[in-house]
Every structure is written in structure tokens, then in C-alpha cells.
């Protein structure tokens, strides 16, 4: 063996993900001043707690007590511009065009990379499959779908009706609005989708779940693995 050739070192998947996560954090300090870096990291550090909420609407108070939009708005913008998170804006109405009915004060933030999300919270495949992780499987599925939609060029929006009903995503395509619901398993009943359909009468809806392709009662079923087909 050539003495000048270093022996190969195998890096495990977990170690590799952690290295990438650490590089993300290092970039926060590299491309922002010290005071802004602290706020950027505080915002980023709150993302798992933000996503774990039932509504997932971004709450400044989850960053720290007394936090306000005026303090952390630039930090959120930095994370979006850096491609670390994707912003999903609330729409107050299900009318076309969505931009005219956005509530810019209400939004969700999703991770732009599933590997970074799993590394950040220490989630492994084995842990994700256990019963106690059932709630977070839904969060994973929804974040995954947000990435798939963003990759396909859709702007991310969601619909909420007075806090009583919420559709995960609303997309614009071919001059019409399509509500999109995400389910992590086979249980696909969705009261919010029914509320939206009764109010706005969309031509059809999309439900992403573990079920196979199909169309029943104007609801198009798309399996999770094929979210890129939407």
C-alpha cells in the first residue's frame, strides 16, 4: 500500500446528516452579524416546536417569551433566502387568485430538506416507525409534501376558516385552485376538506396518503411516494 494514501474512512448516515446540519448552523454565523446570528439561530431552533403544534402556524412566543415580529422578521427572511426553510402563507378565502387573499401575518415554516429535519430532531427510521412517534409521522409527511410542491414550482399556501377548519395546502394550476390534504397513513377522513368543498365547490381535490392512485367523489388520491406527480 502506498504510504501516502490515507485509509478510507466510512461515515455513517447519522454522522453525515449531523455534519451537514452543523454546516447549516455555521453558515448562520458566517453570513450574518453577531446579533442577527443569535436571532436567526433562535428562530431556527424553534422550528421543531412550531411544527409540533396542531395548527403549525408560526408563533413568535415559541422562540422565547416576549419575542415579536419586529425583532425576528429579518431572521425568518434570512432563513427563507438561504433556502433553509419554506414559507407557507395563510389564505383567508378560497378564491382565485390566491395572492389577493393572503394573510401575510399568518404563516407556517417548513424545513426545505427532510434529512436536515430528521437530523435536527434526532429522528431515525426505526424511531419513526414506533407507536409513540405516530403524531410526528404526520408532521414528516406534511413537511415532505411541502418540499415536493415547492420543487414542482408551486407557491405554498394554506387555507383556514376562523380556526375551525384548515386545509394543508392550496395550489394554483391552470387557472383554478386545488385544495391538497396530506395524511401519513390510510385513515383519510378529513372534516376540513369537507368544509372547504361545501364552501367553495372546487372542481376536484387532492388527497396525499399511503393509498394508491384513484378518484372517488371528486377527490384524487395520490400516494405519498408520488407527490412529485401533483
Strand order of the largest sheet: 5-6-7-9-8
In N-to-C order, the SSE pattern is: HHHHEEHHHEEEEHEEE
Euclidean distance between termini CA atoms = 52 Å
Count of extended strands: 9
Q: Which residues sit in consecutive blocks of at least 5 with pLDDT less than 50?
A: 1-10
Global shape: globular
- Strand portion: 15-25%
Helix-strand makeup class: alpha/beta
Radius of gyration based on Cα positions: 20 Å
Number of helices: 8
What would you say about this model in short?
With 230 residues, the chain is of the alpha/beta class. The chain has eight helices and nine strands. It has helices at residues 13-30, 34-45, 47-52, 69-81, 114-121, 125-128, 134-151, 191-200, and strands spanning 85-91, 102-111, 157-161, 165-167, 169-173, 176-182, 205-209, 214-216, 219-223.
Amino acid at each position: 500500500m502506498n504510504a501516502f494514501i490515507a485509509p478510507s474512512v466510512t461515515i455513517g448516515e447519522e454522522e453525515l446528516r449531523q455534519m451537514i446540519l452543523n454546516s447549516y448552523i455555521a453558515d448562520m454565523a458566517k453570513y450574518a452579524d453577531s446579533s442577527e446570528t443569535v436571532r436567526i439561530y433562535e428562530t431556527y431552533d424553534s422550528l421543531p416546536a412550531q411544527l409540533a403544534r396542531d395548527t403549525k402556524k408560526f408563533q413568535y412566543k415559541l422562540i422565547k417569551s416576549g419575542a415579536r415580529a419586529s425583532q425576528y422578521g429579518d431572521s425568518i427572511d434570512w432563513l427563507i433566502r438561504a433556502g433553509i426553510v419554506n414559507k407557507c402563507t395563510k389564505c383567508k378565502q378560497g378564491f382565485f387568485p390566491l395572492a389577493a387573499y393572503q394573510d401575510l401575518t399568518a404563516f407556517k415554516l417548513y424545513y426545505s430538506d427532510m434529512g436536515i429535519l430528521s437530523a435536527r430532531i434526532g429522528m431515525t427510521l426505526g424511531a419513526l416507525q414506533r407507536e409513540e412517534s405516530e403524531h410526528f409521522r404526520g408532521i414528516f409527511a406534511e413537511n415532505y409534501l411541502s418540499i415536493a410542491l415547492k420543487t414542482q414550482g408551486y407557491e405554498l399556501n394554506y387555507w383556514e376558516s376562523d380556526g375551525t377548519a384548515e386545509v394543508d395546502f392550496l395550489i394554483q394550476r391552470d387557472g383554478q385552485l386545488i385544495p391538497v390534504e396530506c395524511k401519513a397513513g390510510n385513515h383519510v377522513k378529513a372534516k376540513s376538506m369537507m368544509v372547504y368543498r361545501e364552501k367553495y365547490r372546487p372542481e376536484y381535490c387532492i388527497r396525499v396518503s399511503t393509498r394508491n392512485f384513484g378518484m372517488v367523489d371528486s377527490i384524487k388520491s395520490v400516494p405519498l411516494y408520488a407527490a412529485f406527480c401533483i
